[in-house]
Fold this protein.
Amino acid sequence: MTGKHPNLYNTQHSPLGAFSTFTLGDFGAKGGFGCGLSKPADESVFIGYKTPDGKAYSLPFFEQGTDDAERYDVEGGAKGGDTIQAISPDEFQRTLGMTSDTWEAGPLSFRILTPLKRAPEPGHAPVEAIDLAYLPSILAELTFDNTEGQDEIQVFFGYCGKDPYSAMRPIQGDKVVGVAQGSLCGIFAQQGQMEAKLHHDPLKALNEQNDWNKPWQLGTNGFLVGTVAPGELKTFDLSICFYQGGDITTGRVCRFAYTQYFLDLEDVADVTFDRWFELRAMAEEDDNIALESKDQSWLLAQAVHSYFASTQLLIDDRGELVWVVNEGEYRMMNTFDLLADHLFFELDHNPWTVRNALDQFADRYSYHDQVVEHESKKIYPGGVSFTHDMGVCNNFSPIGRSSYEKAELDDCFSFMTMEQLTNWILCAWMYVHVTEDWGWVRRRHGLLLECLDSLLARDHPDPSLRNGVMKLDSSFCALGAEITTYDSLDQSLGQARNNLYLAVKTWAAYIALESIFDTVFPHDRAQDAKEGAGRVAETVAAALREDGTIPAVLGEGVESRIIPAIEGLAFPLVAGRFDTLEKEGPYGHLISALETHLKTVLRPGICLFSDGGWKMSSTSENSWLSKIFLCQFVSEAVFGLPLPEDRAKADEAHVNWLLHPESRYWAFSDQIVSGIAKGSKYYPRGVTAWLWLNEDPVV
């Protein structure tokens, strides 16, 4: 990892399914505690120690001037004086692991532990496992080495709450002591280990000795303060807790599922300390998950942390569970083209959540349309597809509608009808491949058949005019045209019609249906799906040009070259359909053409930036890290590309994109324009990097 200050960057630390995060790491008041926010809370966080001479030192995650006494004492105002001193970034070391984040500054050490929890399905697992998995808290340890010291040292962990609806408050429970922002979030220690202090001024809070004044509730700065005796090395166990009670969504009334198991914020803190050692052991075990490359390990850890921050397990007023992954800064709920990328991680950890989302799309967020021929504007029967998302910002959309898609557009915010159709098919295939849940497949038999008919209709209603590639747009677009998940890129990846990326994904969807039908429903529809895959393969392979590239949009004069031509290969690769990926296999001409294309475009000036980072399209500066990670997995496992030294250079570039001074505030960001995060910030999608853990060549 490089960069001027590689230790300065935000990371999200979040419990599973709580849509809450403690963000920390960038310089100044750029982190803090957030529940369902689209960005960091921008709160001052204080982690440090105070010496006997009254001087206090903290990691540099705060801003000076947080004393708001002048709001009350308008004539006297804040009195000024000494302040807490920030420890320079050059004076501490930081190490990010899969479940740990550690800062070391001389005798001071602060470690956050975020267990990489699996999500057991409520009702299908022991209650104690459910409690542990969905406990809305994370752990922290504050350590000070005073073994060489001659004086008593005070250590502290605190923050300046900025929630406009809730004041900071002290908590004195039977088991815990803490400071909290209303009922939403707080920090806790075990009773007797530390004491709570609040004040307008951070240093005055630390210096307060009068027991009556310590929990002063007009104070916006809350601290937990502990004492380390001379000659002692001491660690204080801390919990960072969240709780949102009551109904939190509209359109479909839901509350957090964890409210079934925990009464309030204090109860969460009590249970956290009751199961402290179990939680810590869980986190430390998973912290060993890493790759040989430090850059890849860092990218993976940063991505997984941001994914957890967007997860949300709800229960509706009928008692039905609702799994949601929110779309980072945009907060759209279960964006389907993200689900198709998250599922590789989710299938390793909690496959039932994939089924839950697929059922929600099938039962509430599917629709039927007609299809329109681009040139003639003729309208034909269409078929089934699925919405782009299920709502936004805790507001569920009406049944059959997304929050995103609009008619009469041909770029961002248009319909993704074909994209989401392939996504439902492919996610269903991946789910059943991992779980062998054939009962679910049988229940969805009719919908799977509809999906096949819909794929064929979007090619062309006349079988003699089909070439396997989508040519007809949804009638819902009206005068517009469909787009792909690459909505903010240019025509090379944004346009759905005749798009190379979507064509190969369609090929994978046909193979998915063939595999499912052959296994569960042995009838002639499996042959129909197989023939559809054959048509796609013939069309794409025939489009290979003398220069070794395949155009990004087939037959429309678009000269762009794209890496995501290979993206669709990930699905048969993960499903173990290696026969479809072999050069001597039934689709060998397609695989050979894609290999030639990849070797040709994976060069500087085409699909590599000058720093070695991957460029999704030769004609766009907007490159998406999540898709880069996915394509890296495919390129290495299927084609043995790139060479190790080129991969190392690319990984270093991708790390530096996220560490850029304009990017590091946002933890993991996806859309990187010329090396700087410009969109899809605070984002979960980078969890596609989980595929790197299984990147040995298989073809």
